Each structure stands twice: as structure tokens, then as C-alpha cells.
Amino acid sequence: MQGLLLRVCDEIMIPVVVKNSKVPGIMSIIIDVYAITLWPFIFFRDDGNDITLQHESIHIKQQTELLVLFFYILYVWDWIVGMIKYRDGAVSYRMIRFEQEAYENEHDPAYLDNRQPYAWRKYRVWSDK
Question: CA 49 to CA 117: how far, in whole Å?
Fold first, then answer.
């Protein structure tokens, strides 16, 4: 039943894109943010671009799969694990499994149409690579 619900929600979920928003600037107090996804919104600092829109749209899919709250819990957990392993905020951010999926596929315009549910599960924060 849950899979069906997510599939139905996923099919009708269209993110609300907000351009020239102050939200990324406010979030930049913590880290430098150009765009941020806070389901169901994608906030851009300026007019945005297709690559970043693709990246943030992947986050919309991930957040929908995890009913939003669990996305944020796992996102913070991954960052903490990354900080323990790498002791570097930028590396920890890039090693968050959701960011790995988004960065790897942000240049593929067909990715969201072909993406398998829960595709982020194949990525690991703690990698010996």
C-alpha cells in the first residue's frame, strides 16, 4: 500500500519553483547555498538553471520517497557520519547519499523519468574509495 501511495504522489508531484528567493541567502548563514529544496519547494537565489533544477528535482523525489521527515533525519545522519570519517564539512556534504545521487545524475535530463525508486540506497557515506 505504501509503495502505491508513493507512486501516486510521485506521479502528481510537481515542485514549486521559487526564483530570486531570499531563502538560499538566509540558509547561507550556515553554508553557501545557491538553491535548496524544502519539499515541495525549490528555492533559487537567482533565476536558476537547468542543471541545478534537475539536481533539486532529484531531492524532491528522494524526499517524497521518505515522506519528507525521514529524508531530513537520514540527511543529517549521513552528514554526521561523514564528519566522523572525513573531518571536512565539504567532503561530508558531498558524501551524503542523497547528494551523491543528485550530483551524479544532474546532467541527465532523462534520469527522473527512468530513475528506480529508492535509487539513493546504492550510495554509501562511509566509502574506502
Answer: 25
User: What's the predicted TM-score (pTM) here?
Assistant: 0.88
Q: Tell me the chain's radius of gyration from C-alpha atoms.
A: 15
Residue 30's pLDDT band (cuts 50, 70, 90):
confident
Find all residues with CB under 8 Å of 119, minimum gap 6, and list them: 101
State the total domains in the chain.
1
Note whether residue 127 is domain-resident: no
In a domain, 97, yes or no: yes
Phi, psi of 44 (to 5 degrees): -110, 145
Strand order in the sheet with 16-18: 16-18, 41-44, 35-38
